Amino acid sequence: MIKVERLTKRYAGQTAIRDLSFEVNQGEIMGFLGPNGAGKSTTMRILAGFMPPTSGRATIAGFDVFAQSLQARMHLGYMPENVPLYGDMRVTEYLNYRAALKGVHHRRVAERVGDVKELCGLKDVEKKLIGTLSKGYRQRVGLADALLSEPDLLILDEPTIGLDPNQIRQVRELIKNLGKQHTILLSTHILPEVEMTCSRVVIIHKGQIEACDTPDNLLGKIRQAGGVVLEAKVGSDNGAEELKKIPGVREVVTESENAWKRFSLRVESGVDVREEVFRLATDRRWAVRELSQRRATLEDVFVELTHPDLV
Amino acid sequence: MRKFYTLLSREVRGYFYSPIAYIVLIFFLIISGIDFYFQVSFMNQRQVQYTVQEAFFNSVFFWFAFVLIFPLITMRLFAEEFKLGTIEPLTTAPVRDWQVVLSKFFGALIFYIVLWIPTIVYFWIFFRITNQPAAHSGGAYWGSYLLLLLLGMFYLSIGCLTSVLTKNQIIAAVVSFCAITLLFFLGLVQFILLDVSSTTRDLLGYFSAIEHMGTFSRGVIDTRPIVLYVSMTVVMLTLTYQAFQSRKWRL
User: Which residue ranges make up each domain of chain B?
Assistant: First the structure.
């Protein structure tokens, strides 16, 4: 659905994205991750036809986003970052206007506008001026706008930014459902969201792709593939010394709290050492009050790829 | 075509959503009303060689109000969209750039025409009260309003161009005001520079909006100004279109 080849964008004096290549297949929900200023919005703006790349090319549904911009835009629902809207229009009026602009057949405008209002929970505010809406509702108007023409592809630039946790959950559900009929490219900072919704993830950093894979594969690849936490009363034992001898354990960090010690074990990926730890604790007659596994999250992947010093 | 109408209706409605439209309308009605009142009372006091309608369209008051309205009408056209960022959803919708440019121009032109409609009422009232026509012939009305339309097109297209070049409405207004005023006074230079050759003065005279109005308000339709204003409007709109497209490279 989207094909990006060696896309580069230079602004005066700086390179926003460099040699970006990736593909988004039909029916996929692709998460687009990266720290602030990594080039996410730039990439999305180029795909949406808002600005041309310096070099390289990108196609949407086979149409070049620059040379055949109009055809490419017909297949696209785009929700820009911060959702700029006309504050002097009312919600329904705005959506009617946008539907006509996007070439929705005039007999279907009322039906489509009704549908997207329903879908995005805009029924309560349909007669309000957009300028008086809260951030959350503005986001929803932007999302409703993107959905109006039932496009094959949705490009959503930070759709959940500025929403409260309930709204985030609603939007996440909505995106998941939309993924059944649409191809979606979405950028976000909220990593659990990506883990829950996206089938594939691209992580970009300083304008270059650091990783492009399914969330599960990414988790498997990173160095710090999770770990084990043990909280125990070890008496006269050192604890850390013994734990380190277990095969697969790389490092042990100890925190003391009165008689209790909390050990955070870093282990090699794919190894489960909990059984060994339990055996050790029973052998040594340690009193255990917690033994748990900490799963690596996409957050760990993100930090490792984009800010290795913090790992 | 439907997309163009959609854009156009949004533009026209956009005017009436903002207070600027009403302020311009009221300001313009007050000034043109005072102008009309003064012209009529002036004529009541002495013998003159021209009609009320000619006097109305050729007074200083009239021209003062005239050059001032264009920056007010056009300053928001593009500058506001750039400032609010709404240019992004607008240009990522499947619309062509020329549709955007033309809808903004014609939206401004429609508002400009609305501005003039009340002045027709003045002549009607004059006729009802005095039982005398305000002009020699119907052609004098047509001529005046035709020239207003032509001048309006040209000056509005200048306003479009200055608005597309910046995202600051004040800058757009000031630049277009200067450009329009300079152009307007170019035609007056022939009365100031008396020592220049007659050819130069004639040449400047061709650009003089005041001179054109003198001719048209007598009901004489001269094709030279028509060609001048229509072609200059096309030039300005082409430049606006080019500047609008160049935003992509300036980003």
Answer: 2-250
Using CB atoms, pick whichever of A70, A82, A145 lies closest to residue B94. A70
Closest chain A C-alpha to B81 CA, distance in angstroms: 9
Alpha helices in chain B (DSSP H): 2-17, 19-45, 52-57, 60-74, 79-84, 87-92, 97-130, 138-164, 169-186, 189-192, 198-206, 209-216, 223-250
Q: Do B92 and A86 touch (CB under 8 A)?
A: no
Residues A241-250 have pLDDT tens digits of 888 888 888 7
- With contact defined as beta carbons under 8 Å apart, do A249 and A243 qualify? yes
Chain B contact residues (CB < 8 Å to A)? 2-3, 6-7, 10, 14, 17-18, 84-89, 91-96, 248-249, 251
Ordered by where they begin, the domains of chain A are: 2-214 (3.40.50.300), 225-295 (3.30.70.260)
Give the pLDDT confidence score for residue A310 in this predicted structure: 60
Q: Using one digit for the tens of pLDDT, what is the confidence trace for B188-232?
A: 777 777 666 777 777 777 888 888 888 888 888 889 999 999 999
C-beta atoms of A85 and B89 within 8 A: yes
pLDDT at A112: 94
Section B62-76 average pLDDT: 88
- Cβ distance A51 to B248 less than 8 Å, yes or no, reads yes
Q: Which DSSP letter does residue A182 get?
A: S
